[in-house]
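G., before I forget:
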Amino acid sequence: MCGACHGAKGIATAPDAPNLAGQSAIYTGAQLKAYRSGMRKHEVMNVVAKPLSDADIDALAAWYASIKIQVQTP
Amino acid sequence: MCGACHGAKGIATAPDAPNLAGQSAIYTGAQLKAYRSGMRKHEVMNVVAKPLSDADIDALAAWYASIKIQVQTP
């Protein structure tokens, strides 16, 4: 489901969605919890995050963190 | 100033800070405006974003978007 906007490998396909590939699990987990609680607001993400368990969030955050990124060298 | 947490090239050095390298200007600009207005909450970012002009935000967002990233292939 995440892939629709954030891309299959966490490189966003929607211009207003962030890349998640390579973000730390701490950061992604915190954002998902903030969306779930409504502390961080986004029409889609508040709905999508609502049913996630802590374990779901940990797994998603770990998965995106496991995709390593690098700055492209020309 | 951003580099202290987000890294000199937008690859975060602080584990709770996101990478900004390669994020779309639309996304980064929207987040900076949300931090500036207080709509998105973060102790540091709300303070840091407060004095930014729209032009400052556009320039920062464009700069981070100009750093291209790729998923590392093993």
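The longest strand of chain B covers residues 69-71. Chain B touches chain A at residues 9-12, 15-19, 21-24, 26-27, 30, 39-41, 67-72 (CB under 8 Å).

More on Monday.
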